[in-house]
Specification:
The chain is mainly alpha-helical and 136 residues long. The protein has one domain (2-135). It is built from six helices and no strands. Helix 2 runs antiparallel to helix 4 and helix 5 (74-103) runs antiparallel to helix 6. The radius of gyration is 16 Å and the shape is globular. The chain starts with a helix and ends with a helix. The chain crosses the membrane at residues 12-34, 46-63, 75-95, 115-133. InterPro entries: YjdF-like. Pfam families: DUF2238.
């Protein structure tokens, strides 16, 4: 990420970098190592909100760096960020489904789990979109 910031003039805020590190630590250390995914019904849902929120902000900052100041409409910014976050969340669920089918893993724990993950992804995306669009 730092390479692309210097090379391509992409500006990622320190807050987003911190959020990315937080999501990785929460997923790998807390969720995987300490097995909070298995012992807490709330951890996965909270991580979906935080993760989608972070990916939405990161994607917006990359696009804003590439497009410049062409994104002036609050409504357009809201739609763009929420669409990116929701799409990312859906792709993550498809990826988990693919892993389960190919490698016989149990990343998804049924239809209710998948639907709740999608709902919490939407919450994270909408939250990011709301915060950023109100700053414009």
């Amino acid at each position: 990420m730092i390479y692309f910031e210097r090379k391509e003039k992409i500006d990622i805020s320190n807050l987003v970098k911190l959020l990315i590190a937080l999501v990785l630590i929460l997923h790998l250390a807390i969720g995987q190592y300490f097995k909070l995914y298995e012992t807490s019904i709330y951890f996965d849902k909270i991580l979906h909100v935080i993760g989608t929120f972070t990916i939405s902000l990161f994607s917006y900052q990359v696009l804003r760096s590439l497009w410049g100041s062409d994104l002036n409409s609050k409504i357009l910014v809201f739609i763009l960020i929420s669409s990116i976050g929701i799409t990312t969340g859906v792709l993550l669920e498809i990826f988990e489904f693919s892993l389960d089918m190919i490698f016989n893993t149990t990343n998804q724990h049924g239809l209710l789990d998948t639907n709740l993950d999608l709902i919490f992804n939407i919450v994270g995306a909408i939250l990011a979109a709301f915060i950023v669009s109100n700053k414009h």
